[in-house]
Specification:
Blueprint lengths: L1 H25 L6 H8 L4 H7 L2 H32 L5 H20 L4 H8 L11 H22 L4 H20 L3 H5 L6 H15 L7
Helix pairs in contact: 1-2, 1-4, 1-6, 3-4, 4-5, 4-7, 5-7, 5-8, 5-10, 6-7, 7-8, 8-10
C-alpha cells in the first residue's frame, strides 16, 4: 500500500516537472497532454487521475514553481524583516540589504535551474486564467514590495510612488538581461559574468537615483 502511494506521488511530481519544462519551452497552448505524458512515460489518464485537466495541471505547475521560489527567498526576506524590526535599515545598512536583495533576484533569474519557472512567470498572461498571477505574485510583486521598503528607508524622504517606480525599473532590468544576456557584454565586456555586471549596474543606479526634489 505504501509502495503504491509513493509511486503515485513520484508520478505526480514527474508530470509536474515535465509540464513546467514544456509549458516554459513551447508555451501552454502548444503543449499537449500527450507531449507531457510521453516525456514522463505514462498514459494520458495519469493527468486526469492526478490533476483532472490540463488547466488544473498548469495551475499546479505554477504553484509548485512558486513554492520553490518562495523557499529560495525565505532567508533574505527574513533578514529584511528582522532589520526593520530592529530599526536597522538606514543609510549604508539599507544599501547593504538592497544589494543583497538585488543579488538574490539576479542569481535566481540567471540560474539555469530556474529558467523554466522564470519563463513561466514572464509569460504569465498566456497561461489559463486559473494559473495566472501565481508566479508573478512571488517573483515580481513581493520582491518589488520589499525593495520599495528598503529604497524608502535608504532615501529617507522619497515618496512611495518614486520607490515603487525605481523598484519596478530595477526588476525590469534584471529580466531584460535574463531574456538577452549578451547585452551586458556589449555594454561592459570587462565583467566576468552577467550577474556581476547587472548588480553593479543596478547599485550604481540606486545611488544616483535621488527622490524627486532632492536633485
Amino acid at each position: 500500500m505504501n509502495g503504491s502511494k509513493e509511486k503515485n506521488a513520484s508520478t505526480k511530481q514527474q508530470i509536474l516537472k515535465a509540464a513546467i519544462k514544456l509549458f516554459a519551452q513551447q508555451g501552454y497552448d502548444a503543449t499537449t497532454t500527450r507531449l507531457i505524458t510521453e516525456q514522463v512515460g505514462v498514459s494520458q489518464s495519469a493527468i486526469s487521475f492526478h490533476f483532472n485537466s490540463k488547466e488544473k495541471l498548469c495551475k499546479a505547475a505554477a504553484e509548485y514553481s512558486a513554492n520553490g521560489l518562495a523557499a529560495s527567498f525565505e532567508e533574505i526576506y527574513g533578514e529584511i524583516e528582522t532589520a526593520f524590526a530592529q530599526d536597522a535599515t538606514r543609510g549604508d545598512a539599507a544599501l547593504a540589504l538592497i544589494s543583497k536583495l538585488l543579488k538574490k533576484q539576479i542569481s535566481f533569474a540567471f540560474d539555469p535551474r530556474n529558467r523554466s519557472a522564470v519563463s513561466l512567470a514572464l509569460n504569465d498572461k498566456s497561461l489559463p486564467s486559473c494559473a495566472r498571477g501565481i508566479l508573478p505574485a512571488v517573483l515580481f510583486e513581493k520582491f518589488e514590495a520589499q525593495l520599495t521598503r528598503l529604497l524608502l528607508a535608504y532615501s529617507n524622504g522619497g515618496s512611495a510612488v518614486w520607490a515603487q517606480a525605481v523598484s519596478r525599473a530595477a526588476d525590469g532590468a534584471i529580466f531584460a538581461f535574463f531574456e538577452k544576456p549578451s547585452q551586458y557584454k556589449k555594454a561592459r565586456p570587462s565583467f566576468e559574468s552577467a550577474e556581476v555586471y547587472v548588480l553593479d549596474f543596478l547599485i550604481a543606479g540606486v545611488k544616483r537615483c535621488a527622490p524627486p526634489g532632492d536633485t
